[in-house]
Amino acid sequence: MNPIFAIFKQLGADYTLPHQFVIFFILFILLSTILFSKLRFVIETRENKTTKLDEDANEKLMEANKLAEKYKAEISKVHQGAFDFMKSKKESILETQRQVLKQEEERLQAKIEKDVEIFNQDALGKKSTVLKSSEQLTDDLLEKLV
Questions:
Q1: In 23, 34, 63, 93, which residue has its Cα 20 to 30 A from 111's Cα atom?
Q2: Domain map of the chain by residue range?
Q3: Distance, CA of 62 to CA of 51 (rounded, Å)
C-alpha cells in the first residue's frame, strides 16, 4: 500500500482529494441542472424536428409518386385516344379512297368496253369491206386469168 500512497503523493493527491471530489460533485449537479438539461432539451428538439421533417419528406415523396403515376395514366389514356382517333380517320380516308378508286375503275372499265365495242365495229366494217374487195379482186383475177 505504500507504493500506492507514494504514487498519489507524486501526483499531488493529498488530504485535499476528498474536498476536490465534493466540489466536483456539487459543480456537476449544478452544471447538469443549468446547462446539460437545456442542452439535452435542444438536442432532443432538433432530433424530433429532423425526424418529423424526414417523415414529411417521405409523405411528400409518396404523394409525388402517386401524382406521377396519375400523370402517366392520363398521358397513356390521351395517347390511346389520339391513336384511336388517328386510326378511325385513317380508316375513313382509306374507305373514301377505295370508293373513289372503285368508281374510277368502273369508269375506266366502261370506257374500255366502249372502245372495244367501237374497235370491233370498225373491224367488222373493215372486214366486210375487205371481203367485198376480196370478192371483187377474185373476180378481177379470174377475168385476167381467163
A1: 93
A2: 2-145
A3: 17
